[in-house]
Amino acid sequence: MKKISFKLGISFLLVILILEMLLFFFLYIFIARERIENETDNLLGRGMNHRDVLEKNFTPNTIEHVALMEAEGDTKVIITDDQFDIIGASHDFNENMEILIDIGKSMDFTHHGTLVEERWNTERYLATISPIEIDGTYEGYVFMFADTNPIRTMIRNITLLFLVIGGIAIIISIIAIFFLSQFITQPLIKMKEATKNITRQGNAVTLDIHRDDELGELAREIYTLSEELEHLKNERTEFLSSVSHELRTPLTYLKGYADILNRPNLSVEDREKFASIIQEEATQLTEMVKELFLLAKMDKNQFSISKEEIPLCDFLKEIVSKLTPAFMEKNISLQLICAKDIYVNIDPIRFRQVINNLLDNARKYSSESTSVEVVVHEQKYGVSIDVRDQGEGIPEKDLPYIWERLYRVDKSRSRALGGTGLGLAIVKEIVELHGGTVEVKSVLGEGTTFTINISR
């Protein structure tokens, strides 16, 4: 997790550094260029102003007046005649200025003024030339000079300022990123410890599930997962305990009655009776193992559903007709109510198992002279199938658990009736594999209704 915190911090820092460097670079270029352009525009403007004055009155007095105007300023002016000989200056001129005047001689300049030198970072002066045009001919030239040292000083100050600001920004960014990465990674570290606790100690999880952000959502998901894992762990323990109990009981009967059969003085009648009991227990044990294997295949997603479109009423009518004799033995009326032809897309073999299980339960837990009904309702987007009985019903406290494997409402009565406690679990799994749902409503002493909902 420290690696994640370090990588996250470094990533944030690199992104912020790149953004700051780009921002400072463009600001630096913009400010420096703006200042230099202002200086050169100002120099050109002053040169053209002096040129305009001299074009109106090109006399020694005017030349002296122009030179005097620049004597107290930061810029310098030199006025030459048409041969580039100096005829007026605001300051003492030097060799650098003379070189720039010589450069100006060979330039293609315009009446609006031209930059002679603009390399502020290497040369001593910025320089411009503005020709004095009288009656269509150039009678002289105005050279303006600005010392580049103040510009370089300004650029150095800007650079230093940006370095200081950049350094402060980097330090602040590092501190902010450190706390931000800790703020993000600390909950992740706690979640990591929580997942360890889940594997070691069950559901001993303590997380901040009240955060209103993605980390809060993740914490809530982990907490929910821990609860589900604990529930699954308890279910597994109970299931294994129930399986061992359910297998132990018939095996104990088998061994006990097999030992009795080995007694030499056993009568033929008793021998047949005990052999019949052994056969019943073996049949029940075989049925339970078969259903356990079926549920195991469902858990491993090895249970295949092969759907086909079939007429539901004909399908149910066939099942009801085959089971009617078993119901008649207990004097129970079995009726099918299916008004018209309805076609559904189901696996007939697997769905037959669902209906058989529900009807078998209805028969086992219904008293004589009662009725069991299979009622089909056509819904807007699908079909519902009700299996209603008038049996003893299921206590309300047991309803949420009847779908669990090996759960029995009345264990002693269920064993007497030959149930394995797996039938409803199989029903639920098969219906859900069809994309449907199964529900139950029951009133103690009045009966139970199982409702299967499937889409077309």
Automatic annotation (TrEMBL):
Topology class, membrane: Multi-pass membrane protein
The keyword ATP-binding is assigned to this record: yes
UniProt-annotated location(s): Cell membrane
Major location category of this protein: membrane
CC per GO annotation: plasma membrane
Molecular function GO labels: ATP binding; phosphoprotein phosphatase activity; phosphorelay sensor kinase activity
CDD domains in the cross-refs: HAMP (cd06225), HATPase (cd00075), HisKA (cd00082)
Positions of the Histidine kinase domain: 242-456
Keyword Transferase in annotation: yes
InterPro entries assigned to the protein according to its UniProt record, in alphabetical order: BphY/WalK/GraS-like, HAMP_dom, HATPase_C_sf, HATPase_dom, His_kinase_dom, HisK_dim/P_dom, HisK_dim/P_sf, Sig_transdc_His_kin-like_C
Keywords, sorted A to Z: ATP-binding, Cell membrane, Kinase, Membrane, Nucleotide-binding, Phosphoprotein, Transferase, Transmembrane, Transmembrane helix, Two-component regulatory system
Catalytic activity: ATP + protein L-histidine = ADP + protein N-phospho-L-histidine
EC annotation from Swiss-Prot or TrEMBL: 2.7.13.3
Regions crossing the membrane: 6-31, 160-180
Name assigned to this protein: histidine kinase
Species this protein is from: Natronobacillus azotifigens
